[in-house]
Amino acid sequence: MPTLIIPLGLAFLMLSVGLETRLADFRALARARVGVVVGLLSQVVGLPLLAMVIARLFDLPVAHAVGLVLVAAAPGGVTANFVTLMAAGDVALCVTITVLGSLAAPLTVPLVVGFAFDLFAGDAVTLSLPLGPTIGAVFVTTVVPLSVGIALAERRPEMVAVLRPSLRRASFVVFVMIVVTAVAAQWSELVASWRVVGVADVVLNLAAMGASAALGRVVGVSVPGAVALSISAGLRNIALALTVAVTILGRPDIAVAATVHVFVMNATALALVAARRQRSGGGGAEGRDGSGGSAAG
Question: pTM of the full predicted structure?
Fold first, then answer.
């Protein structure tokens, strides 16, 4: 059941994100590419390095150290785009980083995980991600529903404006269902593994979110852009990390860090959304009938 609920739910969330987004947001992003460059570099290079440092500091066992690096190497998750919308962040920036990071994952993830094995275990491990299924998943759960949503918003703005309140409520319910389903599916492993790798997971998540936002602000990215960078760094594609650990490597012990991260990343992301909504008076995802959605740095 989770294998059906989660992909369908992700596609619905991306449809909702598309309905709140305009092509103009991506055109503005093309003129201010610094946020994309910072986001991609920090996630492809910075997060894995951060995970390696944290694994050393906590003296994690080899399997958990490699697992923590695998979590950091995974691209941003699809839910990051919806959470960015809820937090009134730069949706176009988050979507761009998520899609580009996912398309690069068949190259970047094997390189990073192979290096982690060499660093922590002294082993030379070669792995590869299936290119077709990886890219296909990006298009089915992200690109296609997002494009449909944007097209409807551009061509039928009056209809979208009428449906928007109901769609927002439905989207939030779907998001909660995805989170609950994902956490419930891993709950027993999460509880059993928390003492071993839980604190390291929390430190990685908070450091990734904080550093990404701070770096964005330093290079001139707007506050909504910094929110997008923070959320996209915090919410990882755990499904891909679990696939690599369990299916490709055949190492369930390496999947422990990813299992714990399911709970950690969603808890911190929702805390950020709550803080943003409280600061803005409960506005959250204002969309086009409010303050105008996303803003590129």
Answer: 0.83
Contacts with 9 (C-beta within 8 Å, 6 or more apart), sequence order: 174, 175, 177, 178, 181
Q: Is residue 80 part of a domain?
A: yes
Encode pLDDT of 201-226 as tens digits: 999 999 999 999 999 999 999 999 99
Burial 254-269 (b: 16+ CB within 10 A, else e): bbbbbbbbbbbbbebb
Give me the mean pLDDT over the 119-126 stretch: 77
Residue 283 lies in a domain: no
Number of folded domains that form the chain: 1
**Residue-number span of the structural domain to which 150 is assigned:** 2-276
Asked whether residue 167 is assigned to any structural domain, the reply reads yes
Residues in contact with 104: Cβ distance below 8 Å, sequence separation at least 6, in sequence order: 40, 44, 75
Rounded CA separation 163/277 (Å): 22
Q: Residue 258 belongs to what H/E stretch?
A: helix 256-279
* Mean of pLDDT values over 195-201: 90
Find the CATH number of the domain harbouring 29. 1.20.1530.20
